[in-house]
# Entry
Amino acid sequence: MTAFAIRRLMQSAIVVLVMSVIVFFGVNIVGDPVDMLINPEADQEDIEIAIRALGLDKPIGEQYLFFLKNAFSGNLGKSFIFGEPALQLILQRMPATMELALAALFMAIVLGIPLGLYAGLRPHSPFSRITMATSILGFSLPTFWVGLMMIMVFAVMLGWLPSTGRGDEATFLGVTSSLFTMNGLSHMVMPALNLALLKISLVIRLTRAGTREAVLQDYIKFARAKGLRQSRIIFVHLLKNILIPVITVLGLEFGGLIAFSVVTETIFAWPGMGKLLIDSIQQLDRPVIVAYLIIIVLIFVVLNLIVDIMYSVLDPRVRLGDRKA
Amino acid sequence: MSRFRIVLAVAVAAMVAFSTGAFAKSIKIGLASEPTSIDPHFHNLSPNNALARHIFDRLVHTDSNQKLVPGLAESWKAVDDTTWEFKLRKGVKWHDGSPFTADDVVFTFGRAVSVPNSPSGFGTYIKGKTAVKVDDFTVHIKTAKPYPLMPNDISTFSIVSKKYGATAKTEDYNSGKAAIGTGPFKFKEYVPGDRFVFVRNEDYWGKKPEWDTVTLKPIKSPPSRVAAMLAGDVDMIAQVPTIDIERLKKEPKLSLSQGVSNRVIYLHLDHQRDNSPFVKAKDGGDIKNPLKDVRVRRAISKAINRDAIVDRVMEGIAIKAGQLLPEGFFGVSPNLKPVAYDPEGAKKLLAEAGVPDGFKLTIHGPNDRYINDAKIVEAIAQMLTRIGIKTEVVTMPRSVYFKRASRGGPDKTPEFSFILVGWGAGSGEASSPLKSLIHTYDKSRGFGASNRGRYSNSQVDKLIEDALATVDDAKRQDLLAKATEIAIGDVAIIPLHYQVNTWATRKGLKYRARTDEATVAMDVVSE
# Structure
């Protein structure tokens, strides 16, 4: 398994390198950050000073090599806008995004799996039908619209929840997060649900499909014939078998939750990485965009690795070490 | 028992009153854009400058109409042609209790232009000026040539403490360590991306603000900002979208504060090239650039129905424009009125100019920079098409637009032929737009940096340059007005409207709408 992990990481390094070329050149073709940065009253001389200060007067190839050289020593460049290292800016905002993504993942699991299981076991009950119909809405309604509607209903009309922002933080077991205060949780409910909606629907449908397929399999019939309790059949034999696709998808989707919570974070003014990314794109803060995408690639690589390892735990037939990747 | 009940009721009522407002003096403001640093010299950009006003003072302050008022300097005057004397306020204390003196001022002149990693600093306002300490409370600022805009320039940058600033980096300001100002508020907390928190400076030398605590929360998404206001999560928001204004007016819990800004939205046309890339004959062939003919430019101006733009596109939230700055600003001309809508007259002018059937034109504009910018561009294209100038619309994000509009063509010339832009006069007087938009493009002398139409008129240039060297206010005012009149008569640019900004507050509060568009807690007052 170690060999497998090492091989995977080496492949990932190449992916990251290729990615950096594409992103760096792509981002540098678009627009000119100087116009975003400079005060309009500045004269031509000030504008040229700003261009030189950002290193934008150099040919792009040279800029890339400079970036690459620094990147190998862990320096992904400095933000044009904040003047701080891009990596530091991103890491600073990562906890907020992580807690949102974890909360959304949690919702997807605790709501999605039981609902999907029920709908799979009793496909014709009215409750199952309602669940499945709702899950289609979850897929098809645009995130920004649902987010704004949630704010209108729960914050503006009912006044139950705060409309935007992140709540108070507290430290528990060395981790500082807004998950540990009531105020923090009340701020989190809406953005997390907004972010989770699509994932919940996805998990419901996957679980239901898996369940419906599995109940017809011989091993379930045999378990029934053997006289096992219904709960044991469902929670041990059935669930274990249908979880593999669910975990694969959730693992990948978790990456998506972290990387592309842009819309939710913007609407709920959540101070996370997604909001940083969209702001950076709007203002052409190139170093942050490049650093962000590189970090996201790394996150996806690691998540895929974890998913593969979890396979082998769940399904003993999968032997990672033997596979020629 | 019943007496006890009454006492209880009174007590409860008192507590409710106490908790719901009468004495609760903190304020939360939802900002439309996010300041990037507490360091007042890190980035010379509006959101940062507005933020800095809370913690720091300037030598010269500007009120909500951008009129100059004494700040850390009690008075100022030109003592000779090239020297301005600033008398500093005595007894002012930094937030740590140490006294403010001329040394801090001299130090600031050095720091404000030399912050490491600064994307763009205050060089524009400081270069060519030397600050000399005369005594602890007198500073002389010298220039090589007479410089009438000294107090305006001096009003743009914050004075920082030498004691903290000498060793501080931008991070030290962001952490609060060096965020020691003389301003009305003291730094309390900064959570990047989320909030800025300030508390009142009880020893402030000037009028103390009403608020004990100020929280500034950037909420960039406009609908979310409005929702936060409606939900009562914030007490005030900046930049209410024009589309929501009617609705918010009906909301009993809110009130709106509006004010005209120093920003004119205008069209720039290609005055220079004989073959302008986005001007074509009706059949698509090449044509000698008709925009160089003043009659065509006048026709375009007449073809634009400014009332319709203000009423329909801007939902009534704008004021139609006839020059570079609205009435009341220094240097505006009393003789210039908005050009009236006259499509027939426009067609006549086109005929006189030898293009009776019009021509083909492409108008370029940003779609995320000014209020309703893309919609304005579309409206103008329709109006011009009606008089025969078949106009196509291209809009793009500002990150792409401004580079191309300024230097996207060959040899870094402006790429487009006909564009929509806006200009906010940071100095609050007419020399700012005249110098940057109207004066001939002259890189070596720093004139016409934003003259994207390359308009050039030596008479106007002379007037502008004279004005910039005339210290006498009345004479300068006349020169600026004269320059404006000639340029507008020449249709150097086509002014459309002045932007009006809208803030929403909860009932009982009012915002003194600032012409410089800044959102600061000091201008929020109870009614």
Residues 14-22 of chain B have pLDDT under 50 and may be disordered. Chain B has two domains: 26-218, 261-500. Chain B touches chain A through 53 residues (CB under 8 Å). Residues 261 and 517 of chain B are 6 Å apart (CA to CA).
